Amino acid sequence: MNANRKEILRITATMTVVCALAGGLLGVAFLATHRYREVADRRTERRAILDLLQLDSSATVLEIRQFLSPDRRQVVYRTAPLGGVAEREIVFGLDGRLVTSGPVATGEPVRAEGRAARVESEVKDRGLVPLGRMFAASRGVAPAGFVVEGESRGYKNRIRFFVALTPGFDLAGVRVVQHEEDPGLGAEVATPAFQGQYLGRAAADLEALTVTKDPMPEDWRSALATIGRTPLDTWRERHAALLGRERAKPIYAVTGATISSRALTDGVRETVDHFRRRWELLAPQLG
After folding, report:
1. At a CB cut-off of 8 Å and minimum separation 6, what does 58 contact?
2. Which residues contact 72 (CB under 8 A, 6 or more apart)?
3. Triad 118, 120, 125: Cα angle to 5°
4. Which pLDDT tens digit goes with each residue over 251-285?
5. What is the tens place of the pLDDT at every residue in 182-196?
6. How many other β-carbons are positioned within 10 Å of the β-carbon of residue 93?
7. Handedness of CA 181, 252, 273, 164 (dihedral sign)
8. Residue 23 to residue 204: CA distance in whole angstroms
């Protein structure tokens, strides 16, 4: 009996040591790769933003994170150049009154790839609720457009997307970046062909943007099928007449996936509406 007990204790101790070593190795591997993954994610995100706005790498992109402070009944904006660390914090009351605006003092040098983790830690400590991000692009001092992150409830789960806007708030593009919709059905909202329907929609028409179950005209379907095969400027020039015809019409739903189609369309409309109201407050503070 004693021999069996000793054997059990030996096996338990061995397994404990092995698990501790494995956990330590995983922790080291995470710390070693997390920074590089964050850098890679930032680069991918920047490329997506520049691609949506048809900009080259010389453009400047300002990242704006929005948070709600329930205790203080305030909305907090944290801004920094995408990939940079020079942060500002702008705080408004829920009534739109400016509370504070100024640079963020970090207390110590912070690498660009560590900024997101630091901000996330501060958000938890302050009890802030994330409300999404937006990006303002410029060439020199001239605005070049905006990209706004949005979410909506799809058929199965949340659909996360980017909406690109011109300086005049017309739609410059939509890109689904995360979803769990069914392949061949709701997942079609993430294809260039479906997302191409949002191109060129005027700011004045977005409030009434809706979805129809009517069949899509064949000439429009054929045009959308080629949207990823040619440069976007070329595609828009080639199909200018169709774009003009369809610009004021509803979005054609994916057959059998009206819920997903409507979820993305409603999300785009609401995201743009919220952004425009936020930007009216932010723009004077950002110069």
Report:
1. 139
2. none
3. 95
4. 999 988 899 999 999 999 999 999 999 999 999 98
5. 888 888 999 999 999
6. 13
7. positive
8. 56
Read off the amino acid at residue 28: V
Both tokens of 137, joined, read: 């692009």
